[in-house]
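Q: What structure does this chain adopt?
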Amino acid sequence: MKQSKMLIPTLREMPSDAQVISHALLMRAGYVRQVSAGIYAYLPLANRVLEKLKNIMREEFEEIGAVELLAPTLLTADLWRESGRYDTYGEDLYKLKNRDSSDFILGPTHEETMTALVRDEITSYKKLPLNVYQIATKYRDEKRPRYGLLRGREFIMKDGYSFHADQDSLDETYQDYKKAYEKIFERAGLTFKPIIGDGGAMGGKDSQEFMAITDDRTDLEKWLVLSKNITSIDEIPESVLADIKEELGKWLVAGEDTIVYADGGDYAANLEMATSQFDPKAAYTEELELEKVATPDAKTIDEVAEFLKVDQSQTIKTLVFRADDELVVVLLHGNDQLNEVKLTNYLGADLVEAASEADVEAAFGVHFGSLGPVGLKEVRIIADREVELVKNAIVGANEDGFHYKNVNIGRDFEVSEFVDLRTVNEGEVSPDGRGTLKFARGIEIGHIFKLGTRYSEAMNANVLDANGRAIPMIMGCYGIGVSRLLSAILEQFARIYVEKTPKEEYKFSWSINFPKELAPFDIHLVPVNIKDETAMALTAELETKLRAKGYQVLVDDRNERAGVKFADSDLIGLPVRVTIGKKAAEGIVEVKIRATGEVVEINKDELVNTIEILNQN
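A:
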């Protein structure tokens, strides 16, 4: 492929509006261009990477019996009304009308569509299981699209759906998808963790997320590739290293999710789902007499603990939430933070939100800061499991400016349920006891769900079982953020290349170090001077040889200065660059391996073998 025929609009500088390195490099290296906020065009280089990702997926999904199809993007709202999501999905749903004023949406996901398709065609359990998927564009009206491809309004997603007559069949397919996802991400060269995930708006209970880990950039050697005339980071002057650290510090660590993992075991979960070890046994403590005390101007846990000269662990915090149309009181231990995802999942409500101060005053006659569980009537009280262990606690007295001391559950108030509702903290013991919890940032690249009968029951997607009875199909759902993968790969494979010039000057620049299986081309042929007939003849000869060996070759045939060509080549980030320069008449070319920065001069007849040897890892 001739570079002069490609649309690769590289930039001299990083775009000023980019906050993460993947967005900056995709823009600067000419892979994508923003059309409007949160909406991008995938230029030829990006499209080639995406197609390679899709082909990897197709190969792995074929191994598990998944069949590709393509569903429409423009969907009738009637299907979403059947499932109940039309009114509950939220403001991210694109809603529109056709010329007949019928309601439509732009599909953010396709559970309803696939359920309807299968419902209308499959009537017997004998036709199950059925496992289908598509790779298509999705739409979500993000309020604040950001970080390039990581949070957009239009994106490419692979979404798969399986239909089953029994739970065992779903469990088997779920595990097949888990293994397929792991193979896909391994082939993409990603460092990732499968973690316990939250089903969110998708419905269902069992789910697992796949998170690409993003580096915090403290390990400088991991980010550097040493090239010409440099063999060790120790050779680089401190002033240059300081400049490199400053450059790294300009970019946010990508990943909107916090991953919680055990440093001594296999446990890993999204922060929204993570838990820690809990010992339900409380030491015996004598119950003291209930006492009401004045706490003027003390409203927060810290203020109350400081005023009463006690540790905050002796306090219980009282919160109020509205779950659909019901007020629910939630109790937490000390300064523990409520995990609203856990609360929402436990309550099973469509909408859970913090109650307003007006709601609380109308229901209980007290303001926030003095609210407590003692004396509350006809309201559901849920407590985090840690609360059950607190004896002689301090709580609000339901009177402004007062708190109760020595409050005990069972004697002074009752709790409906004790459940895990708190957000874990780094350093707590893993739930399996194998090490302590650590936090890392990550990008969600895949998610698999056991939906159960959430959609089939709502949409009457039934089959007849072996006894002729109508049963709802059991469903699974399996997603990969394809365009997100492109950003995740760059976040992990962006590198700073450091070179020492003949004048003993140090230069460094950003570049992409693509995994070989995903690079848009395998080899970049760069003739320094296209007016040199000998060099161009050698370039054509090498291109023919390399293509015959199955390599995908990009030839920089542009009439540009050598410096421009090399700068663009570094930005594009192909695994191998072959420079055809002054020694072309001698049949000598320069080979640079991007992953290692290694540069060698070789004879043209040795090029194919040399590339295979140098680029085998």
